[in-house]
Structure formats: C-alpha cells, structure tokens
Amino acid sequence: MRNWGTVTALEEGKCYRINRIELQPGHHISTQMHYHRSEHWIVVSGTAKVICDGQEKILIEKQSTYVPMCMPHRVENPGVIPLVMIEVQNGEYLGEDDIIRFGDAEEG
C-alpha cells in the first residue's frame, strides 16, 4: 500500500488494463502523463477532484472522465471517505516506465 492508497489490477489484455484505485481522504496521485496510453476513470464511491491539462473538475459517484495520451493529469480526494475509481487504460504500451511524473509531494 502506498501512503495515499492502493491500486489493484483487475484485468489485463494486449492493449488494455483495468485497475481499481482507492485514494485516501486528503491525498492525491502525482501529476503525471503517458506517451503511449489514455485512461478513463469511473468514480465508484467518494468524490474525485480531477486536474487534466490545467482544468479542474469534481466527479461524484457514477461520473467519469477521459484522460487523453500526452495530457498532464492528477486526481485528488477532497472528501472525507475513501475515493474508489475504476481506471481503464488503453494503448499500445502499458508499462510503468511510460509514467512521466511532475514534481509533486506524493508519489503514485
């Protein structure tokens, strides 16, 4: 477990991966981008503050957002309960070395 929460791989295929992400209240993942994959985030429970290409939006249960390739992004949990999201990654390459992190206090 990372200090901000957990990522659980649910399924993986040739050009996709599905993860369950749980983000603790008051935490965030690092601002990052990917050259070879896009991501679709679906909020299962809690509240997500998503920053994508400098634009902020709040998502609640049953809402989703799309993060294109090469787009700086991050997600925060501004709420008081854990944020649970399903993340669908699509791309020709899904390796961990395709995560370009920008200077944030937390990693992930």
UniProtKB/TrEMBL annotation:
Annotated GO MF terms: isomerase activity
Keyword Membrane listed: no
Tree of life domain: Bacteria
Keywords: Isomerase
Pfam families cross-referenced by the UniProt entry: MannoseP_isomer (PF01050)
InterPro entries on file: Man6P_isomerase-2_C, Mannose-6P_isomerase_type2, RmlC-like_jellyroll, RmlC_Cupin_sf
Keyword Isomerase tagged: yes
Stretches assigned to the Mannose-6-phosphate isomerase type II C-terminal domain: 2-104
Protein's name in the database: Phosphomannose isomerase type II C-terminal cupin domain
